[in-house]
Write a structure and sequence with these properties.
alpha/beta, Isopropylmalate Dehydrogenase, 2 domains, eleven-stranded mixed beta sheet, 12 helices, 11 strands, 48% helix
């Protein structure tokens, strides 16, 4: 069973319900709890053909606004669709929650309602990004602006498990984002984390340091960083992709020859568009919580939201939290225990 915040996001509830309907067709054995305004949700269910035996509506009119501060949302949002959807996971009614609503509020509420896993100091935002070699998992993407070495080590373990679940790789390669690949480069906490990860030996496939350009090249399958650096890297990648596509469109329009060349290249460009379509990678995971909470992009359309739902289903079915716990037991005894690293 999956809980959905039907009122979160720029295109809610229309795109949310349509996205659930798309996911329901793909996952025939999954039941959905829909939290939100029943008067708005019910006509959309009929419109998009979600079968009566696939859902239950939990009516609530309160909504967490996109510009609400997390502290405000926590104080005044206990009756909101977001809070109630998360609580259904805490109470054991659902295996995962998905929302396209306010990121800060969703993270704060998820942390309060679900708590963190034993052995995890801070949860991290993880997402899947396209690379020249396939896909990579990047974390943290904004939950923790500053991190110590212990946090980075924990992120590496969680990213390792996340990638393994999503892509079936037993030992994905893990890299620490840094300003250079040399061992002497970077801040002290990054070098300390690298030292610990090297000590894991065959328990983890630690590559070493990677730089910003390595992310899209696909040098490693997991890229670990503090939330500040990770968020900057993510926004830079998104901006670069938009710059390239917009510039390409402008160049094609400039001459008949360009338009003719575009027609010849159209099959290849369509494949490229599909690979780089951000909707295919929608659904960021809050790793480190004692429950599955997935954040869809606020502006996601129905197709994109369905991918976020599919991510939540996959993580729930593969018992993400228990697998992270088990992996922590195997490797974190090698992490530094002194308070100076915190």
């Amino acid at each position: 069973m999956i809980s959905v915040d039907a009122m979160g996001g720029d295109n809610a509830p229309d795109a949310i319900i349509e996205g659930v309907a798309i996911a329901a067709k793909k996952h025939s054995n999954v039941f959905f709890f829909l939290y939100g305004d029943e008067e708005q949700i019910k006509p959309l269910i009929e419109k998009y053909g979600l079968a009566d035996d696939r859902y239950k509506i939990h009516h609530t009119t309160a909504v967490v606004k996109a510009d609400d501060k997390p502290s405000v949302a926590i104080r005044s949002g206990r009756e909101s669709s977001m809070w109630k959807a998360i609580m259904s996971v805490r109470n054991g009614y659902a295996k995962a929650v998905v929302s396209a609503g306010n990121t800060g509020a969703l993270m704060a509420m998820s942390k309060i309602c679900l708590g963190t896993l034993a052995g995890i100091d801070r949860p991290a935002i993880a997402a899947i990004l396209p690379t020249l070699k396939g896909q990579c998992v990047a974390l943290d993407l904004g939950a923790n602006a500053e991190c110590n070495s212990q946090n980075l080590v924990e992120f590496a373990v969680m990213g390792h498990v996340f990638y393994s679940i999503m892509f079936g790789a037993e030992k994905p390669s893990v890299g620490l984002l840094n300003i250079g690949s040399e061992e002497t480069k970077g801040r002290e906490e990054i070098r300390e984390a690298a030292s610990v990860l090297k000590g894991f030996g065959d328990k983890m496939n630690f590559h070493g340091f990677v730089e910003g350009n390595d992310i899209c090249i696909g040098t490693t399958e997991v890229v670990v960083s503090d939330g500040f650096s990770g968020n900057v890297a993510l926004k830079t990648i998104e901006g670069t992709a938009k710059f390239i596509t917009t510039s390409l469109k402008d160049m094609i329009k400039k001459s008949v020859v360009s338009k003719f060349g575009f027609m010849l290249a159209l099959p290849a460009l369509r494949k490229l568009k599909k690979k780089m379509d951000p909707r295919m990678y929608n659904g960021a995971m809050f790793l480190g919580l004692n429950g599955v909470s997935v954040k869809s992009h606020g502006g996601a359309d129905a197709f994109a939201f369905s991918h976020a739902v599919s991510t939540a289903i996959s993580l729930a079915q593969n018992d993400l939290c228990q697998r992270i716990k088990k992996e922590l037991e195997h490797v974190l005894e090698y992490a530094p225990a002194d308070e100076s690293s915190r």
